[in-house]
Amino acid sequence: MKIKKLLVANRGEIALRVMRSAREMGIQTVAIYSEADRFSPHVKYADEAVCVGAPPSAQSYLQMDKIIEIAKNLGADAIHPGYGFLSERAVFSQKVAEAGLIFVGPSPYSIEIMGSKIEAKKAADRFGIPLVPGLKEAIIDINEAKKKAQEIGYPILIKASAGGGGKGMRIVNNENEFEEQMQRAISEASAAFGDGSVFIEKYITSPKHIEIQVLGDQHGNVVYLFERECSIQRRHQKLVEEAPSSCLTPEIRKAMGECAVLVAKSCNYYGAGTVEFVVDEALNFYFLEMNTRLQVEHPVTEMITGVDLVKQQILIAEGQPLTIKQEDLQIKGHSIEVRVCAEDPANNFLPEVGKLQTYRPPRGVGIRVDDGFEEGMEIPIYYDNMIAKLITYADTRTEAIQRMMRAIDEFQITGIQTTLSFCKYVLGHEAFASGKFDTKFVEKYFKPEHIATQAQADEEKIAAVLVSKLVEKISKSATFTNGTAPARQVKSNWKNRRYN
Ligand code: ADP
Fold first, then answer.
1. Which end of the chain is flanked by fewer CB atoms within 10 Å, N or C?
2. Burial code of 68-80, b = ≥16 C-beta within 10 A, e = fewer?
3. Does residue 176 belong to any structural domain of this protein?
4. Where does the record place the ATP-grasp domain (predicted)?
């Protein structure tokens, strides 16, 4: 069935991103917004917009029944969840279908299986996908778990089955730490997910996080769109992503891609999804989990493949067969994304609140900015603190890096500290340039004083912005004192006076 009107159950950059593709496809768009987002660009962009509630997400963007009701009342025939919020809630996908609407995403069944790291591991195991050595069941008996940890060999990692965003994860270096870290992981997991079940696996030292983008249709066809390297993280959350990875060989790329397709098939997946792997120094790869939605970092894949992933999601949701064949897909060029988040890298990446006093994104060849803010807007404290995604594209990795350095320099943000200074430090680091880095980049190479000079640079940037604003003002008033423009004005005033 053709989708004619799409409600986007999200906010900010991703709501805009989705609506842009929908509009190109001739689909009407409906935005929802909380009271904190009344003046947001995604609200202005949509054909229709409805306030869904108070600022806290529980009272707005997570209100499943209310959102479905709005969709029905406005005659929307589909709902796109974006990422975060309701995107990986099987019950939401189920409710949308029960209301007679199309959920732009996978079936409740796939979301359910892949939503549990333990169930996901079991499903992948049945298809012979390599897994990190460890338990495939939640821990019930601590002594049993200790014994198992001994067998696996320290260091080990405790993980929350319902985990996400790096929460509930604890590294245990030796047996003495085991019980304490276990208690911490369980209480963190219970608090964050309402589910305290945890399991353990081998902690891969020097790990790289590499993920594969897949697209599957409702007729059993699945293709992979190569990898994204996402090893630059803080608090187990990504900050710099790129495609392709600089360390994979064509053989390993193909093997990982084929594994990702199998993972998708293991849960009858349709839609866009991402299969995450951890890769060790010897390039052995192990399945971590599958994210059953569009990822924040999807643009780098779009840049190197030329595929509009949101458009594909919509076509798949309509029930159309994939027209993309695996053999047609090719990597062309190189793309890097940096996440511009409101936080202070010099202060342990502490989240920042405040107003975007200056907000001027860079422009020019090979640059894409996906954002959801405008100059003068406050960053609401209720949601994720990402302000924008800055993406560069070029023929080679070196050029994409150079372009990113230029773009970061041009990005003018004042009023708030952002991760841009940290990202510039990463891109200028020889470990990044050589491709020899892992998820420990921050611990290994980064110290706050590395960007102390960046703070100075920021001050210089602020000064430059103020000077340019001043020059603008002076040159405007200069036109009024030096002749031509004011003369025309006086003349027209005179004319008006004369004939009125
Ligand atoms: P979440 O769902 O909370 O993001 P993941 O399982 O995706 O958790 O892991 C988050 C990050 O933690 C990964 O990007 C990877 O860098 C690291 N990680 C996960 N499992 C392991 C492991 N067994 N060994 C080393 N690092 C790991």
1. C
2. bebbeeeebbbbb
3. yes
4. 121-318
